[in-house]
């Protein structure tokens, strides 16, 4: 039996130092809603757990002077929901983050953990990708930025290098006429895992889409940025042809598996259906913004 | 005592166990601890089917912290050629189910168990046990198991002289079906499939067992029958029943799944070996892999009717999965399938099929939902073919008093017609439907059961009442018992405490199952209370020095029967209790009965659904159950049963199923991927209680708990048809399957 040590550093430098020194035997604990479950199931037995919730930057939600947001990697879904402004600016990201687990789990679960758990079905990731979020990571060699979609490498794997810790998400300022949304297909109404998840962010000027991003989850080894779907929407007035082209792009991007949660045929079809439904919500929100 | 004043019977009193349950004080199976207690874990087969050639436990035994190890050689063996029955369970199969003997018969089948000072050490020791297997070909699904070249699970099971996976057959015949079909203007024959579904109790199996140095054992566990726990543990360990005390914990759901045991004999053997109290708790994954579920099925049903809507012949063949050892509920499927209808010619046939899956356990009206699903879908098609309202067709053919059922009985007064009439008259049945919405109806029957029950009613010295029964309370039976006792004694409900005795403190009582507990315990409690009332009258007579016949018991007090009896101020229960010592001693009475007269229960359900055509999602929008309950002793818990059964049936119809991987292992052994409905998946499930009193019961009670799971599968299925114009002949109607059928349209 090996013991597990627990460390709760106050600074990021300390956390990075301990994480790098543990050389792979350590795991980062944000909310723990994946890590602790995996440990209890006997899938993981880390020698060291580094709790990052005591580090101020990790739990801060900052509205930048330019209107953008910086969200600490360990911010809980519940804390994000209580922020007076975040949900007004990024309703789609918020609804996606708030879909992680039950109400109780929301008190702990974080977008940083959801991203680093690297499940293709993580709910917050398609919405973050659609939002164009950029993450800051810090490791033994300092800080760097990368787009959210560059973080997942495959189921359970990220492109973070050894010793690197995800610090925060930066979401850009929103031009007027912007809106975002996230929808997922689950067989139940809650307490479930996405069979397909779609995040859409749109900016509409004078009835024409001027900017769009589409994130697609649970249909490939990683959550995807579907540029072709966005391109089909940009410049359009969201007419049926544009929507169908974007849906087709989503279907084409799918590389799903047949498993207990859904078939290839089903997931592929649903990706297109959800794209259209998510665009409709994002567009409605853009019209109000 | 057939006159009911209705002061407490029918009231929604606060359940005696309520405060403990909502404050967390209630002790469930896993909540008991003892000094010196150790933990046991089970080593389970990694193969779906394998001969066990050798088990070496020496490395596990040598691990520090390990206190005892056991295998099948520690369990009493029941030879294959001689049946030893305990209720419906055969000890030949039970001894092989709790611990694999000659062969591991399913992935997850227990092969050995270890008790150690911690659960982690026990788990580590399990991994040190060396088992040499000869891996055998395996078979999971019915259609594969009944093929001529299928891998055979048990060589000793023979059909027509040859080894077979068909372990049993049951047949009901009434009239002449061929002649019946010849009279029919419309004949419809269809084939159906359902998947195995788990009972889904929230509390997993758990127990604590302590064995004293003189060999006397105490078992604390959550089950649907402490006497079943005692008897099965005795059979499987060889300890006399008198040396085993089984104490029932509060039960966090059973639905039939806790009418057999898994852990208790193992913990008992390990406790005996180690001399330490042994605790075992199944993980959710173990519950899914190795307990329950109910059968998956393959059925064929043919029904013929004349053009005026009279059903003249019905034929059904039902293949049910037993799991790895014989004993699927073919009686429920073949027996209940046509039971709601007055059909002159019936042939109903059930086959018990073994395959390499966990042995099935009872699940709420075992087998009946499977039979009703097929029959009620075909009845719907007959109604459509005849352009008749589906409820009117059912009404026209409904069984009533005097109807001879194919499974045997001639019905006494039953309330099936009333359930259909209530559904027809209900606003739900006439409410408008929107786009992609549909309405379906279905009916159902369950036998219900009587059987052995014991009760003791004692008057305390301060004039209150303690009632002890022998049934774990799974659906509010303590509240019902208190209502009845308060009613009969004419005292406030709060003055009655109801407890569940253990096997040493109350007489034998059969399982909490078969929808029997409120029916049977009401009988023994009524008779016990009547004896107490007789005693109370005698004591008053003694105090007044008059004849006991001249004393009446009214409104909680003894009164002189009339002016001739003499003029005495009434004596309350408390006043008589206070003088108990001087008038003859303690006041109390116990009654033990093998109860009879539990007549069948009937229900009719109406279900509205909406289908998302692009995603294939079926949502239930509105659901109303109409059920003849005889008499609702406590309406809230009657409604709770009706709602619970409907919810489970909706899950069975739409989302629940066992999924196996390519190696014969359950691939969705968790509540995440075994999709039971959650609260937000369901609308408020409406209930309409219909009371046609059972003439054979003092309060008119009929069993309530199981009928509600019989109609929903077909009610949902018929509603989906009504919404889409496409029929499904296989469950669950999960989103990928719905889309597949729609795309194929």
Quick tags:
heterodimer; A: 289 residues; alpha+beta; Uridine Diphospho-n-acetylenolpyruvylglucosamine Reductase, domain 3; Enolase-like, domain 1; 2 domains; 5-stranded antiparallel sheet; 4-stranded antiparallel sheet; 12 helices; 14 strands; 35% helix; B: 745 residues; Aldehyde Oxidoreductase, domain 4; Aldehyde Oxidoreductase, domain 3; 3 domains; 7-stranded mixed sheet; 5-stranded mixed sheet; globular
Q: Which series of helices and strands of chain A comes N to C?
A: EHEHEHEEHHHHHHEEEEEEEEEHHH
Chain pair with largest interface: A-B, 20 and 25 residues
Strand content of chain B: 25-35%
Kindly state the mean pLDDT of chain A as a whole number? 96
Sheet with most strands of chain B? 7 strands, mixed
Query: Which oligomeric state applies?
Result: heterodimer
**What's the CATH first level of the largest domain in chain A?**
Alpha Beta
Low-pLDDT stretches of chain B are none
N-to-C CA distance of chain B:
62 Å
CATH superfamily of the largest domain in chain B: Aldehyde oxidase/xanthine dehydrogenase, molybdopterin binding domain
Structural notes for this entry:
Chain A has about 290 residues and is α+β, with helices and mostly antiparallel strands. Chain A contains twelve helices and 14 strands. Chain A has two domains: about 150 residues, Uridine Diphospho-n-acetylenolpyruvylglucosamine Reductase, domain 3 (2-Layer Sandwich); about 110 residues, Enolase-like, domain 1 (2-Layer Sandwich). In chain A, helix 6 runs antiparallel to helix 9, helix 10 packs antiparallel against helix 11 and helix 11 packs across helix 12. Chain B folds into three domains: about 150 residues, 2-Layer Sandwich (Aldehyde Oxidoreductase, domain 4), CATH 3.30.365.10; about 180 residues, Alpha-Beta Complex (Aldehyde Oxidoreductase, domain 3), CATH 3.90.1170; about 300 residues, Aldehyde oxidase/xanthine dehydrogenase, molybdopterin binding domain (Aldehyde Oxidoreductase, domain 4, 2-Layer Sandwich), CATH 3.30.365. In chain B, the strands form eight sheets. In chain B, strands 3-7-1-16-13-14-15 form a seven-stranded mixed β-sheet. In chain B, strands 11-19-18-17-12 form a five-stranded mixed β-sheet, with helices on both faces. In chain B, strands 20-28-29-30 form a four-stranded mixed β-sheet. The interface between A and B is medium-sized, with 20 and 25 residues.
């Amino acid at each position: 039996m090996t013991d597990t040590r627990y460390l709760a550093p106050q600074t990021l430098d300390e956390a990075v130092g301990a994480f790098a020194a543990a050389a792979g035997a350590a795991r980062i604990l944000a909310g723990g809603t994946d890590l602790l479950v995996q440990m209890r199931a006997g899938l993981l037995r880390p020698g060291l757990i580094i709790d990052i919730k005591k580090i101020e930057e990790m739990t801060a939600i900052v509205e930048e002077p330019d209107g953008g947001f910086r969200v600490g990697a360990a911010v809980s879904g519940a804390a994000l929901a209580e922020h007076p402004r975040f949900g007004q600016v990024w309703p789609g990201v918020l609804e996606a983050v708030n879909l992680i687990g039950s109400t109780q789990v929301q008190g702990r679960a974080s977008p940083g953990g959801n991203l680093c758990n690297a499940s293709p079905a993580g709910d917050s990731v398609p919405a973050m990708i659609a939002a164009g979020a950029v993450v800051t990571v810090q490791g033994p060699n300092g800080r760097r930025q990368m787009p959210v979609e560059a973080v997942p490498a495959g189921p359970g794997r990220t492109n973070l290098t050894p010793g690197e810790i995800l610090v925060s998400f930066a979401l850009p300022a929103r031009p007027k006429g912007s809106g975002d949304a996230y929808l997922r297909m689950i067989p139940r109404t809650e307490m479930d895992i996405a069979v397909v998840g779609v995040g859409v962010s749109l900016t509409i000027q004078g009835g024409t889409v001027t900017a769009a991003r589409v994130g697609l989850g649970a249909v490939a080894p990683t959550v995807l940025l579907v540029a072709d779907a966005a391109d089909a929407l940009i410049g359009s007035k969201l007419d049926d042809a544009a929507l169908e082209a974007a849906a087709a792009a989503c279907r084409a991007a799918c590389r799903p598996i047949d498993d207990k949660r859904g078939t290839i045929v089903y997931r592929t079809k649903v990706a297109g259906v959800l794209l259209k439904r998510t665009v409709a919500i994002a567009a409605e929100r853009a019209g109000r913004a | 005592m057939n006159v009911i004043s209705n002061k407490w019977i029918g009231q929604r009193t606060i359940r005696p166990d309520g405060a403990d349950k909502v404050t967390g004080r209630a002790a469930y199976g896993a909540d008991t601890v003892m000094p010196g207690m150790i933990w046991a874990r089970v080593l389970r087969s990694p193969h779906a089917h394998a001969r066990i050639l050798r088990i070496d436990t020496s490395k596990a035994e040598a691990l520090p912290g390990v206190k005892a190890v056991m295998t099948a050689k520690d369990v009493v063996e029941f030879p294959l050629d001689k049946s030893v029955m305990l209720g419906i369970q055969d000890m030949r199969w039970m001894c092989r189910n709790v611990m694999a003997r000659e062969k591991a018969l399913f992935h997850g089948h227990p092969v050995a168990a270890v008790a150690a000072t911690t659960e982690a050490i026990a788990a580590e020791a399990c991994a040190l046990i060396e088992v040499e297997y000869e891996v055998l070909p395996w078979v999971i699904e019915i259609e594969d198991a009944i093929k001529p070249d299928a891998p055979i699970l048990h060589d000793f099971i023979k059909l027509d002289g040859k080894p077979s996976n068909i372990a049993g057959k049951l047949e009901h015949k009434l009239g002449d079906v061929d002649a019946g079909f010849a009279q029919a203007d419309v004949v419809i024959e269809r084939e159906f499939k359902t998947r195995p579904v788990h009972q889904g109790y929230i509390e997993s199996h758990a127990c604590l067992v302590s064995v004293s140095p003189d060999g006397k054992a105490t078992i604390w566990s959550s089950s649907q029958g402490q006497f079943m726990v005692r008897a099965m543990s005795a059979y499987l360990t060889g300890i006399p029943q008198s040396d085993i005390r089984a104490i029932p914990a509060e039960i966090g759901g059973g639905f039939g799944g806790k009418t057999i045991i898994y852990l208790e004999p193992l913990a008992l053997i390990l406790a005996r070996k180690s001399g330490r109290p042994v605790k075992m708790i199944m993980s959710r994954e173990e519950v899914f892999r190795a307990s329950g579920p109910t059968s998956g099925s393959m059925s064929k049903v043919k029904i013929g009717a004349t053009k005026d809507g009279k059903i003249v012949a019905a034929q059904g063949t039902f293949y049910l999965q037993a799991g790895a050892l014989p004993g699927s509920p073919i009686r429920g499927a073949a027996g209940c399938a046509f039971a709601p209808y007055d059909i002159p010619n019936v042939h109903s046939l059930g086959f018990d099929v073994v395959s390499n899956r966990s042995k099935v356990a009872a699940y709420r009206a075992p087998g009946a939902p499977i039979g009703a699903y097929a029959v009620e879908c075909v009845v719907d098609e007959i109604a459509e073919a005849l352009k008749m309202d589906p409820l009117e067709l059912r009404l026209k053919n409904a069984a009533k008093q005097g109807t001879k059922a194919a499974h045997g009985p001639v019905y006494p007064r039953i309330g099936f017609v009333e359930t259909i009439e209530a559904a027809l008259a209900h606003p739900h049945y006439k409410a408008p439907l929107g786009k992609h919405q549909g309405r379906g109806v279905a009916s159902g029957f369950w036998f219900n059961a009587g059987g052995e029950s014991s009760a003791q009613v004692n008057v305390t010295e301060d004039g209150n009442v303690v009632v002890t029964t022998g049934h774990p309370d799974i659906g509010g039976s303590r509240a019902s018992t208190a209502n009845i006792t308060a009613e009969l004694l004419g005292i406030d409900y709060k003055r009655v405490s109801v407890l569940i005795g253990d096997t040493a403190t109350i007489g034998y009582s059969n399982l909490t199952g078969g929808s029997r507990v409120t029916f049977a315990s009401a009988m023994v409690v009524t008779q016990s209370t009547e004896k107490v009332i007789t005693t109370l009258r005698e004591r008053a007579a003694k105090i007044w020095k008059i004849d006991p016949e001249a004393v009446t018991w009214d409104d909680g007090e003894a009164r002189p029967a009339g002016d001739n009896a003499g003029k005495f101020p009434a004596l309350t229960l408390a006043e008589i209790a206070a003088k108990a010592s001087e008038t003859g001693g303690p006041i109390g009475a116990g009654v033990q009965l093998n109860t009879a007269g539990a007549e069948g229960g009937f229900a009719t359900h109406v279900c509205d659904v909406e289908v998302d055509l692009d995603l294939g999602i079926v949502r239930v929008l509105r659901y109303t159950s109409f059920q003849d309950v005889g008499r609702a002793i406590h309406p809230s818990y009657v409604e709770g049963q009706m709602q619970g059964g409907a919810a489970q049936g909706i899950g069975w119809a739409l989302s629940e199923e066992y999924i196996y991987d390519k190696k014969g292992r359950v691939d969705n052994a968790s509540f995440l991927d075994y999709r039971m409905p959650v609260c937000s998946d369901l609308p408020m499930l409406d209930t309409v209680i219909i009371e046609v009193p059972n003439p054979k019961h003092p309060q008119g009670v009929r069993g309530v708990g199981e009928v509600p799971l019989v109609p929903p599968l077909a009610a949902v299925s018929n509603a989906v048809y009504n919404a889409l114009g496409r029929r499904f002949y296989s469950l669950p109607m999960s989103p990928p399957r719905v889309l597949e059928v729609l795309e194929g349209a």
